[in-house]
Amino acid sequence: MDLGGLLRSWPLYRQLTGPDKLGRGAAAQSPKHVGLRPRTATADRVAKSVCPYCAVGCAQRVFVENEKVVQIEGDPDSPISRGRLCPKGSASLQLVTGPQRLDKVRYRAPYATEWTELELGEAMEMIADRVVEARARGWQERDEQGRRLARTNGFAGLGGATLDNEENYLIKKLFTALGAIQIENQARI
């Protein structure tokens, strides 16, 4: 590129020598952006979602093209975040489409050194069986004075801060119905 071409590529030179003296129009525009379109322009649809990371509940717009997520942005209609996302929320696309994302149930048996893949139904049955067994093993029907307890120390519940109030409420109800007394939430710790 010659010196004249180099000078014309600088916005300040275009501003001083061209009609856009305030640098608010063509003088400030880079020639590289001509023809570029946002990733969201070709999306087939936009789904509304909520950021999965913390309990703030920042709203997101998920842009889908050919049934694949192509971009995730903050939702400007949200009264909570008004279209803004923190660095983790801004990286939600990597959570959804990253090559490191696991999409199968993985299980490592006690004392095993390797992971194995399980079917979802099999994994759910294993969890249910273990909850029932732990509940029965730690069950306390009555205390030393004969007072009814109807509780278990066989397992505990720890809710995450990424869960909303409704999810935490239902988890608390489930664990209480199962007789658990150690029920806590990450937000209180």
Name the descriptors.
4 domains; elongated; N-terminal domain of TfIIb; alpha+beta; 6 helices; two-stranded antiparallel ribbon; three-stranded antiparallel β-sheet; 189 residues; 9 strands; single chain
Description:
- The protein has 189 residues and is an alpha+beta fold.
- It has four domains: 31 residues, no CATH class; 59 residues, N-terminal domain of TfIIb, CATH 2.20.25; 35 residues, no CATH class; 52 residues, no CATH class.
- The protein is 29% helix and 22% strand.
- It contains six helices and nine strands.
- It has a three-stranded antiparallel sheet with strand order 1-2-3. A two-stranded antiparallel sheet has the order 4-5. Strands 6-7 form a two-stranded antiparallel ribbon.
- The longest helix is centred in the last third of the chain and has 18 residues.
- It is elongated, with a radius of gyration of 28 Å.
- The N and C termini lie far apart (62 Å).
- 8% of the residues are buried.
- The mean pLDDT is 84.
